[in-house]
Every structure is written in C-alpha cells, then in structure tokens.
Amino acid sequence: MFPTPRCLAAKAPGFFKKSTGELSRLARIALNAEAISTPTKPYPLLDFSDPAATASCKTMADRAVGGFSTAQLDFIPATATDPAHTRFHGTISTKLPNNWRVERTGYAAFRNRDRGFWLLGRLYWDADPYAYLALRVKSDGRRYMVNLQTESVVETDIHQHRLYTRHHRVYQPPPLGEGDEGRYGALSDIPPAETIISTATTTGSSGSGWETILLPFHSFVRTNYGMIVEPQQSLIKQKIKSIGIGLIDRVEGPYDLRIHRIWATNGMSEEEVEEERSICGENALGVDEGVRTLWGSKRDAHGKEGSHTQRKEEEEIGKRKKGLEGLKGEWEQ
C-alpha cells in the first residue's frame, strides 16, 4: 500500500496525546462512578471519521508471501449522503506464486498498529464492562471476519467473528482443499437467513447501505493461524491489543467495505439514536431496553412494563444523579 498525501498528513497520536487521552478517559470513569455500575455510553475504539484513525492502521495481504491479492485503506471525507469513513478495498486473487512453499493464497486484511505505551505501561482497550462490539459499516456482502487480538499466553491467538450484514450475497464457496475441513468448520460460510437479501431487493432499496452490527464478545471464536483451536478460551476484554477486519472467502474479484467507526457498547443509547438514524436510515437500530432503563426495570418475558410500583421505581432510577453527587445522595439516605 502506498500512502496518499492525506494519510501522510494525518499522523497517529504520539505518546503525550495517548497519555492525556487515557488519563481523561479514566478521570471520566471515576467522576461518573462508571466502575460500580453498568456503563450506558459507548466506548470509542476506532473512529474512522478522524483521518488519524486510518493512518493508525496497516493493511496485510498475500503479497507478503508472493501472492497477487491487494489491500488498500483510504480515508473518505464526508459527503451529502455518507459520513467521513475509511474504505477497505482491493482485489482477491487465488493465483499461486512460483514458490513451492506457498500452498494457499487469496486473503487481505487490516488492523490497527500497536497502540504503544502511555505513562503506566502498554496501552490496551479495556472493554470489560461491555457486552457488544459495534461496527457501523457499508458492506458489499462478502465474507468478512472481525479479528480481535488480546494479551494472552499464545501471542498469535486471534478471536474471530463473522461480519454478517443485511447485504450478504449467497454464492457457492470454493471446494475445500485437503486439511481445510477444520480450518473454518465452526465459522459457518452460510449467513443467517434473516441477513440474506436478494439482488432485486438490494438494487431497489432506498436505504443508505450503512448499518450497525452488534457482535457479542462472548461469541468470538479463538483461532490460531486461521484454524480453530482447543480448548476455547474467553476473550480477555480487559486487554484488547488490536481490532481488524479480514477477507478470506477466496472468491476472486474486487471487494469494497466502508467502516465509519468501531466501539464497545451495551446497546444503543438515546444519545446515539439520532446519529444512527441520520446515517443508517431505514436500517437504523432502535434504543436498547437495557440502556433505556439502566438495567433496573422489571419487565416480563415480552418486554412489557410491570406494575405501577415498578414503573415508579424505573422513574426514580432515571432521576437519580450520576457520579459523585449520586453516591453522596445514597450515603446520606
């Protein structure tokens, strides 16, 4: 990948900026007492509306072993119809190089670079209080994978999850080679039925194409060099080193994935809904019930509100002050 002038101009944050950013984030957590309650606000991880986020990522492809696939990552400024975002694009080729050691090609990916250090050591993302990894994307329907790497005993371990979107295409996967049965066995190639849209429906859709995908952290699968390994271990959410997206469907041809931002969340909050609707249109997610009631309501299995007393309790929860003032009020009761 050859950097464009825009990418060269947008530098990744340095040590001082990383330290001040992390200190300010921890200060907000302490002031709002988020450590003793379930957070309702999103935790930004990669915001590609900022050119620096694109500059802080790197691309990978089979060209590193002599293959012919390409991978590019470009910052796209905001337009009347799209927010500022990054574009992950290129071509996939399964052509083998003149190297008998290379038996398989046809992949491309990107991820953020090492986050470096701050005042208290190595810098990680701590997503422990959050249930979902959220991605706002515009997909061409190919079989992308979301990759998370954490601090672990086996450094090359990666936790993966399929990026199913509303624009999945159904195609005949290439035949598996010898020894491939276990490589993708637990990560199904077949998207869920509710995500499949016919070509006619997709072509005639009036939506923007943007959508927000919520991936449960507990659903990520531990892999090593593309193979699912046992025993499966839970993702260490406190020490996330890198986030990336890869394409390993080995279907020759161009690909194009747009990413607006990636964040950790416990569901869509009221504050996020306005942006969600303005960008995603008819594909926008609604407010998550857990966020709306601060996980304090008592609802039945159908999501209906309970008795008058329960509704009153919910209203009292919503009126409670946050942060130190809220704690002080509890102590004085």
Automatic annotation (TrEMBL):
GO terms for biological process: mitochondrial electron transport, NADH to ubiquinone; NADH dehydrogenase complex assembly. Residues 47-169, 207-259 form the NADH:ubiquinone oxidoreductase intermediate-associated protein domain. Residues 296-333 are annotated as: Disordered. One of its GO terms (molecular function) is unfolded protein binding. One of its GO terms (cellular component) is mitochondrion. InterPro entries: Galactose-bd-like_sf, NADH-UbQ_OxRdtase-assoc_prot30, NDUFAF1. Keywords: Chaperone, Mitochondrion. The keyword Chaperone applies. It is found in: Mitochondrion. Pfam families: CIA30 (PF08547). Its main location: mitochondrion. Residues 297-333 have a biased composition (Basic and acidic residues). The keyword Mitochondrion applies. PANTHER family: COMPLEX I INTERMEDIATE-ASSOCIATED PROTEIN 30, COMPLEX I INTERMEDIATE-ASSOCIATED PROTEIN 30, MITOCHONDRIAL. Belongs to the CIA30 family. This is Complex I intermediate-associated protein 30-domain-containing protein.
